[in-house]
Write a structure and sequence with these properties.
With about 200 residues, the protein is of the alpha/beta class. About 40% of the residues lie in helices and about 20% in strands. The strands form two sheets. A six-stranded parallel sheet has the order 2-1-3-4-7-8, sandwiched between helices. A two-stranded antiparallel sheet has the order 5-6. Helix 1 packs across helix 2. GO terms for molecular function: hydrolase activity.
Length: about 200
């Protein structure tokens, strides 16, 4: 009964990204969560079933979650037996992010409530259903967590991340000049070194 590490990708990613983490967890089975959910209420139904089907064969489980994958994980897996979580550029306060996006798009709450959905110039669709859901379902997360955050993350402020880290006793690491999407050679090297350090 080995240990499993489940990788939860972000928007536009896929389960195949899990392959990157195999060398970093040589004593574990690294498995990408192949999910279809695009909304937190869909993740709440889908994630526990996928998680349980993987975990029945393992004694202990850790997760790596990227961006919105971390939000989906916190929204749907908080009751599961997870030994440790590694969050990369996590969305930890979705209500605040939606509020920020509404400001960027110059949209009021009343307008969104009336129109239900509003397309933005930056490619995101604002949704009244989504905002209502996150207001009614605040995240509770008590799992031992390590966070990697890029200093130039455009989706979450340092204040938002550090506030979450303090409230949840998470260990926060900040990469200078790092972006939300860790993809350059320098960023990936930093990410790998970070995991090696905190996963001991």
């Amino acid at each position: 009964m080995k240990k499993a590490v489940i990788y939860i990708h972000g928007k536009g990613g896929d389960a195949g990204e899990a392959a990157h983490y195999i060398p970093l967890f040589s004593d574990c089975d690294v498995i990408g969560l192949n999910y279809a959910a695009q909304f937190p209420w869909e993740a709440k139904e889908e994630f526990p079933l996928l998680f349980d089907s993987i975990c029945q064969n393992y004694k202990s489980v850790e997760i790596i979650a990227n961006s919105i994958g971390a939000f989906f994980a916190m929204n749907s897996l908080s009751e599961k037996k997870i030994e440790r979580a590694y969050f990369i550029s996590p969305i930890v306060n979705m209500e605040r992010l939606i509020g920020d996006m509404m400001q960027w798009a110059n949209v009021t709450e009343e307008e969104l409530q009336t129109k239900k959905e509003i397309e933005t110039s930056f490619g995101e669709t604002l949704s009244w259903e989504y905002l209502s859901y996150v207001k009614k379902n605040p995240v509770t997360w008590a799992i031992s967590t390590y966070i990697l955050y890029g200093e130039k993350d455009h989706l979450s402020s340092y204040e938002t991340i550090s506030e979450f880290a303090k409230q949840n006793n998470a260990t926060l690491t900040v990469m200078r000049n790092g972006e939300h999407w860790f993809h350059t050679e320098e960023e990936m090297q930093f990410l790998d070194d970070w995991i090696r350090q905190v996963a001991q």
